[in-house]
Amino acid sequence: MTRLVINELRRALPRATIVAGGEHITAMPEFSLTDCQSLDYCVVGEGEETIVDLVASLDADRPIAEVPGIVYRENGDIVRTATRGRIRQLNEIAPPAWDLVPLANYLDSGLGFGVNRGRCLPVLASRGCPYECTFCSNPTMWTTRWIARDPDILLDEMLGYIEQYQIENFDFYDLTAIVRRDWIIDFCQKIIERGHRFTWQLPSGTRSEAIDGTVARLLYESGCRNVSYAPESGSPSVLKRIKKKVALDRMKSSMRSAITSGLNVKANIIIGFPGETHREIFETLKFLVEMALIGVHDMSISPFSPYPGSELFDDLRRDGKIPELSDDYFYSLETYTDLLHTISMSEHVGGRALGLYRSFGMLLFYGVAFTARPWRIVKTAVNVFSNRQESRGEMSLRDLFFRIRGSEAVAPPPPR
Fold first, then answer.
1. Where are the alpha helices (DSSP H) in 13-102?
2. pLDDT tens figures, 16-61
3. How far apart are the first and last CA of the chain?
4. Angle, CA of 175, 177 and 178, to the nearest 5°
5. Are 301 and 339 in contact (CB under 8 A)?
């Protein structure tokens, strides 16, 4: 789709300079330039400083080779300039120019990554992640340096959006927002001290090391309502291979604290990693039961997809287990959304078996969760058929209900 847009831009504006950036471009700049001849420059890594330097160089007709963080074509060859260091002063980056975007189209449609809790805007509190999970492209895109913004500056930005756009909820798109316990406590306390009322959530998956009873209570008191954890697997041996440095017992304790404090908790699970065995998948299924008994509200279980920029992608490419890069391959990365067609990258578990494990895992988790807490069945049914969903699972059920009814419209957002 992005390539199609770029090609259309080139046809409409043949003399324009077209620049692309982001996770995919950073992971595969040479491929992107070869695959899309309409593209002029790739910005690798963080782009705020690079794009300014690039535009200034183009405007002044200075050599592009002097701009760090750029990949481009020159005389038929692809040239990569020097690596640009990470931005260390996040507080000095200007906020997004939302006024240049038809923002109302998104706000009025209830669109967002997290649970629909009204007019929602995405924000970032930090960049990077200090961990090196082999299925993640973070080390390529951001390096392993985690940097957080000043809580006061972040909160000022959020309050400005509330006043300007009548925002009611914020989705934090951080790779992992909660790394330092002192930072999240400071941020929550500042929200509480200022006395403002809005909701916020962590929908992309976070770690558990800093979330104990005290932090969980502050999260809820400050307006946080939904937290996604990212254990990825319930098998210690798999966690070790994928370099996911997480203690499952510690995570379960953190989940209990979050649930006790009133937070709606979701967990993200991946199965079918290279080398994963049937026994290791059963360990993950056992962990699903444990989470359901703890009281985790929601869960997603997806097949592993080797994303460009990750260590596992490079390993699989080197071993010849990833075919020639093509549109079909990139479309296959989206099979995590398709319950009927599952591709397995494990030599021990086939695609059909992995799909069955996935379906059984969902039935197992929700079966145990509703059996242990039968009142949630009634609450879920009420939420699905009302304008107030509390979890992504409830939102999915509501969307399914509307599709079955043949409605062309997405389920309406909750009333303001």
1. 23-27, 29-35, 48-60
2. 999 999 999 999 999 999 999 999 999 999 999 999 999 999 999 9
3. 34
4. 130
5. no
At 154-195, the pLDDT tens digits run: 999 999 999 999 999 999 999 888 888 999 999 999 999 998
Distance of alpha carbon 347 from alpha carbon 278, whole angstroms: 11
All structural domains of the chain, each given as residue ranges with its CATH number in brackets, are 2-80 (no CATH), 90-373 (3.80.30.20)
The answer for residues whose C-beta is within 8 angstroms of residue 248's C-beta and 6 or more apart is 231, 234, 236, 239, 287
Handedness of CA 216, 219, 224, 228 (dihedral sign): negative
Distance CA 201, CA 221 (A): 12
Is the sign of the CA dihedral 64, 65, 67, 69 positive or negative? Answer: positive
Cα separation, 36 vs 171, in Å, equals 32
State whether residue 271 is helix, strand or coil.
strand
**Are 113 and 171 a contacting pair, CB within 8 Å?**
yes
Structure tokens at 328: 């079909």
**Residues linked to residue 172 through DSSP beta bridges, in sequence order:** 123
